[in-house]
Task: inverse folding
């Protein structure tokens, strides 16, 4: 399982349930990586998407504790066990990659089960209320690739790829 996230220099990912930046190349990178794949997100992340609608061209799975929650075009799960069951069925049917796309609590829950993290690192500190784990301080995560530095207006950023040497298979 993969995850994909954009973080600021303090590993912040959001404020008031929103991203704090809009970088076209990062959106393109996200789209290219996740198109045709499975994306897992929390309910609040789904509701923060344009129109609160699922992402086109992807299998959308929403992990939520709200038992009565329903949304057209998404698969709803309420626990890791349910998620494992759904992913098991999907794996039998096709070879789609799986991407965890947020938010904060879903990232925290699923991080140990991810073997690859695609991290857009933005060289700016924002005022935030939600953070991602600092993979640079976690010995099981190893930085494998870093792109050339990119610029969008006055923001500098890089695309990074980390691998988890201590990944826990989902279902363990």
Result:
């Amino acid at each position: 399982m993969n995850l994909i996230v954009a973080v600021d220099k303090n590993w912040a990912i959001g404020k008031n349930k929103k991203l704090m930046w809009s970088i076209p190349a990062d959106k393109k990178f996200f789209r290219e990586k996740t198109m045709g794949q499975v994306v897992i997100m929390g309910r609040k992340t789904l509701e923060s998407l344009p129109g609160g609608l699922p992402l086109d061209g992807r299998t959308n799975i929403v992990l939520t504790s709200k038992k009565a929650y329903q949304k057209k075009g998404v698969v709803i799960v309420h626990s890791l066990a349910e998620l494992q069951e759904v992913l098991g069925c999907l794996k039998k049917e096709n070879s789609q990659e799986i991407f965890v796309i947020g938010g904060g609590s879903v990232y925290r829950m699923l991080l140990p089960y991810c073997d690859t993290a695609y991290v857009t690192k933005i060289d700016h500190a924002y005022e935030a209320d939600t953070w991602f784990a600092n993979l640079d301080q976690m010995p099981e995560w190893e930085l494998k690739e870093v792109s050339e530095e990119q610029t969008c207006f006055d923001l500098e950023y890089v695309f990074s790829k980390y691998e988890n040497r201590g990944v826990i298979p989902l279902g363990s």
Notes: The two ends are 14 Å apart (CA to CA).
